[in-house]
Structure formats: C-alpha cells, structure tokens
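Hi D.,

Good news: the full-assembly prediction came through. Inputs first.
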Amino acid sequence: MAAASNPGMPPHSLYIHIPFCAIKCSYCAFNTYTHLDHLIEPFVHALMRELQILAHSQPGLPLHTVYIGGGTPSLLTVNQLSRILSTIRAEFALDPAAEISMESNPSDLHVDYLSALREIGITRLSIGMQSANQTELDLFARRHDFVSVIKAVESARQAGFDNVNLDLIYGIPHQSLADWETTLSAFLKLDVEHVSLYALGLEDGTSLKAWVESGRLPHPDDDLTADMYDLATTMLDAAGYDQYEISNWSRSGRECRHNLQYWRNLPYPGVGPGAHGYAGGVRYSTILSPQRYIKALNENTESFVFPRTPATDNAVLVERDAEIVETLIMGLRLTREGIVRQTFRDRFGIDLLDLHGEVIQRYVQLGLVHVDDEIIRITQAGRLLSSALFREFV
Ligand code: SF4
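Then the structure:
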C-alpha cells in the first residue's frame, strides 16, 4: 500500500541509477561498471535502504514518475526490480497512474522478462537501439545488433507495452547522411511512441575520444551533424511525430513525463551511485563507486535532512538567481511548450521579459525566439543555435 500523500508537497519525480553494464560502450562516460555482477544484489539491498531513508526524511512525498536508468537496469532480475518498486510503493505516495520508465538493452528483452516487467508495474520501456548499422554498433562496442532491436520491440508489444522509446545516436565518425537516413527509416518501421536523438559527444575518458585524438577515427563533422539533425526533423515530422524538446519526439500524449519534470526544472530526487538530484531547493549528486555506496548505506545509521542520504556526496543550495537561469535554459529546450510566462511569474514573482527583455528581443529579431502574451519558446531556426542562446543567460 502507498504511503499517504503530503498535500503540501508538489509531485516529485524519482530517478534511480543502476550502475552496472555488461560491456562499456566506446562513447560512454556515464557512471557505470562492468564485471561487478556479484555486487548487484548487495546494491539492491543498499538502494532499498536509501529509498527508505529518503522517504522517512520527507513523509508522504508524492511521486508521479519513476525513472530507472543507468547503466543497464535490464541486468537486474524481475525479483530485484520488483523489490525496488515495492519499497517505493510502501514508502512514498506513488500516484497509481505514475509513469514508471526503465532503460534497457535490446539483448536482454525476452518476452517472459518483459511480461513480468509489465506485471510489476513498469509502464514505459526505453530501448538503446543507437543505430541500425552494424558497423556503427561495432564501433560503439554495443552487445546487440539491429535484429535484436526488432525482436525486442515485437516482444514488448506482445508483453503489452504501449509506450516504447528508442534512443538513436548521430554524428558518428564515417557516418554519411545516407547511413543516417537508413537508420531513421529502420526506426520508423518499428512504429514506437517515442524517440530520443543524441548527437555523439566525445567525452573525456572514453575509447572513442582517444581514437579520434590519435587520428584512428575522423572528428565528427559539425556541418554534417547539423544536416543529420535537419533530416531527422523532416522525416520524423512527416511520419507524424511531434517534436516537444530539442532532441525528443513522441506520438501525441506520449511525451516522457519524467523528462518533462527536468525541463520544467521541477524536483526530482536521485538515488543510486552517481545519481543527480534536485529537491528541497538542493542540487546534489551521490557517491560514484558502487562499493562505497553499499558501504555507506550499510554502515550509516544517522538521520538525514531531505533530500540527503548517506550516499549524498555533493549538495548545493540553489539560490533564486541560479534557479531562474536553470528554469530558463531548461524551459527553452521545450520546443512546443516553451516557458509559460504566467507559470514563471507565479514561481519567481517577475515577468521574464522584465528580467531578460533585451536578450530575448534580440533573438526575436533574428527569428530564433518566439514571444507572445503566454509563452516564450525557441523557433525551428533557433533549435540548432540554442547553446549560444543559453550562454547569454548564464
Ligand atoms: S549500455 Fe549504456 S550505460 Fe552501459 S556502457 Fe553502454 S552506453 Fe553506457
């Protein structure tokens, strides 16, 4: 049974970081570890304890979305995921209609496993497709091929999932516009509800960055990457997907509610090693190492002030000015909704145009920002130049 909701609290979104992967992908800089399967069960135990500590410091915390990310959550057994979700239901005021998302690797998604995920309450499945091109998947050291993506989507449908996301990556060394078009066409045939596109970044410490720096691979071409973004926009639009965020498209009503919470700069406690969170006016991250995380949760018996737990590593109180900037930058990512001026006024007691009128009007004149009485949002032309605009507010 869910805990009684605290009516004075706004709905929160809970992020859970699962820090295990079977293989480290060549482009990945996330906090994930391979060859630590023996730690998965102790980690689940520690995570349940962290959830209890978090819930006890803020009784009745209402949750309207849960996102199990990583890492590779589909390395966990149904029993382990079920215990995590049972703890959440027992300790928090989880909305019965909550969106509960889980990231997954296509190779792990057999129909029995997926049916069991539906039974324990996972409502949205995110699958790391990345590409339909085997050479690109090999370059990434992914452990799946495109056939396993097709099978995973079929199995998800058989299991009853009606809310499926696929992640795709573009701007890959040696990737041509035609290669990208092939991946997009293959994606469209799968007819899922949502897609997230990621321009490949060369992150510190990754094999991919080392290969580019050593000359073994060419540097991704920025102009070609921009053309790929335009092509995706055109093809997804023609196929009836709505773009609602700079890098996210969905079928009507299938926007990711959890990620909307981030872009609206609303609270999301984060648990698990290397999670980030923002709640109670505090932005924080947790201990990176799974071993240290498990030890901290097992040994610490103190009580903590929300949203801190024994796993909290860095915590910073977000001042009003910083909150305004974050709300602006995140809100402008929402290409359709933008920033609702009344919501902004209610939250900060000032109109956005009184605060940043000069910058906004300059971008309006360049055709990069749209302003009316109700909203401020970036235009189609502004999407590719959004980083420059965001820097103006910092
Ligand atoms: S599966 Fe995902 S989290 Fe794991 S290494 Fe690959 S990209 Fe990173």
